[in-house]
């Protein structure tokens, strides 16, 4: 009888211990993550900011739970940097000081470079949609770049040109680019990779003399033209080049996919080949596109899905490490690559590149065709 009582008592104690353990784990049924977005919602790059804002908001609703069934809820706080570095710094201080946010998503090279010292000093997780190669931290801060490096994109596009055109070293390439850090970076990379006659022509983002710029380009008698830029002036330039009689191939970096650029180019933008994310036409992506139209009356952009996936990656990391510590989340992202979100394979390199598959698209006004 004593043995039975002891067994029953011991079993009750053991059950109580397990109940207490799981009760402690389940007391807080939800872990809350706060993510800050510093995006250009107004100004020349507003298209990019709006794409990423919608992606962040939709990504915050993606359901993530940890192994105990605890929900990882998410709230995004988005500030308009207007594409200006000084404004972005003010945005960061406001979000960091007032909201105590440890995770940030941003874009545009000048903005990212201005914020980099703050990310490093505060040890906040930063995911930036940039191509600038020296953005990544050398100080051990959890800084990531969500896009390809300029060197990878340039190499990918040049390989495509050599494989899909009658490329000769006697050809003459003219690279037309915005006069900013990324444009100058691409200039060096294209010149090294093409190994043919090469001319670089820069222009200011607010330039109004598109006709003069097109004339200057065509005076070089190019075999083909390469473009880098994000604003509608790039589209007007393509239209002017065609109107002045250029019928050769035009190649561009991802910025050409901006709706305002394609709209400005109109039918003259047909047969422009540009780099872009290779995103599958999965059921999940179709659902996101439907949500974009219903809630934002917005078209889908690769930058929408990069922002969406950046939020989901943070939530997945928080769920698995059971912590909102920026250091633990950063370590998780480095050590657990690759990831698959919405059917898209995502890898994180040793130096912090968050990479998506890349493709070249042949633009057709009113639709795109994968190559």
Please explain how this structure is put together.
With 371 residues, the protein is of the alpha/beta class. The chain has twelve helices and 15 strands. It has helices spanning 2-26, 46-60, 85-99, 109-122, 150-164, 181-194, 210-218, 232-243, 259-265, 283-296, 302-321, 326-335, and strands at residues 30-39, 71-80, 103-107, 125-129, 143-146, 172-178, 197-203, 224-228, 250-252, 272-277, 339-341, 344-348, 353-355, 358-364, 367-370. The strands form two sheets. An eight-stranded mixed sheet has the order 2-1-3-4-5-13-12-11, sandwiched between helices. It has a seven-stranded mixed sheet with strand order 7-6-8-9-10-14-15. Helix 11 (302-321) crosses helix 12 (326-335). The longest helix has 25 residues, at 2-26. The chain is elongated, with a radius of gyration of 24 Å. Residues 2-9, 13-27 and 367-371 have low confidence and may be disordered.
């Amino acid at each position: 009888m004593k043995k039975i009582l002891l067994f029953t008592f011991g079993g009750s104690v053991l059950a109580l211990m397990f109940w207490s353990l799981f009760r402690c784990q389940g007391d807080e049924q939800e872990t809350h993550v706060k993510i800050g977005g510093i995006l250009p919602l107004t100004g020349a790059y507003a298209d990019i900011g709006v794409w990423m804002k919608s992606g962040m908001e939709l990504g915050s609703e993606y359901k993530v739970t940890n192994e105990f069934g605890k929900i990882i809820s998410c709230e995004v706080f988005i500030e308009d940097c207007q594409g200006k570095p000084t404004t972005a710094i003010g945005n960061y201080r406001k979000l960091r000081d007032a909201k105590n946010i440890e995770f940030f998503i941003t874009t545009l090279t000048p903005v990212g470079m201005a914020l980099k010292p703050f990310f490093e000093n505060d040890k906040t997780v930063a995911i930036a949609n940039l191509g600038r190669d020296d953005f990544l931290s050398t100080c051990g801060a959890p800084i990531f770049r969500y896009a390809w490096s300029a060197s990878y994109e340039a190499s990918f596009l040049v390989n495509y040109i050599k494989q899909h055109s009658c490329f000769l070293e006697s050809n003459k390439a003219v690279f037309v680019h915005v006069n900013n850090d990324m444009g100058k970076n691409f200039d060096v990379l294209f010149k090294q990779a093409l190994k043919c006659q090469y001319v670089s022509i820069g222009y200011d983002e607010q330039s109004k003399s598109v006709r003069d710029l097109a004339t200057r380009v065509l005076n070089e008698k190019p075999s083909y033209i390469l473009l880098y830029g994000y604003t509608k002036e790039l589209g007007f330039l393509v239209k002017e080049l065609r109107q002045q009689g250029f019928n050769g191939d035009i190649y561009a970096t991802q910025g050409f996919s901006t709706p305002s650029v394609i709209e400005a180019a109109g039918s003259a933008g047909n047969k422009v080949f540009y780099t872009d994310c290779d995103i599958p036409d999965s059921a999940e992506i179709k659902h996101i596109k439907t949500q974009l139209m219903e809630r934002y009356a917005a078209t889908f952009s690769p930058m929408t899905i990069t922002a969406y996936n950046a939020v989901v990656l943070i939530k997945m990391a928080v769920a698995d490490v059971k912590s909102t510590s920026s250091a633990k989340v950063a370590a998780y992202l480095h050590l657990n690559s690759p990831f698959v979100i919405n059917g898209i394979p995502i890898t994180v390199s040793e130096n912090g590149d968050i990479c998506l598959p890349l493709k070249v698209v042949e633009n057709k006004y009113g639709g795109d065709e994968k190559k």
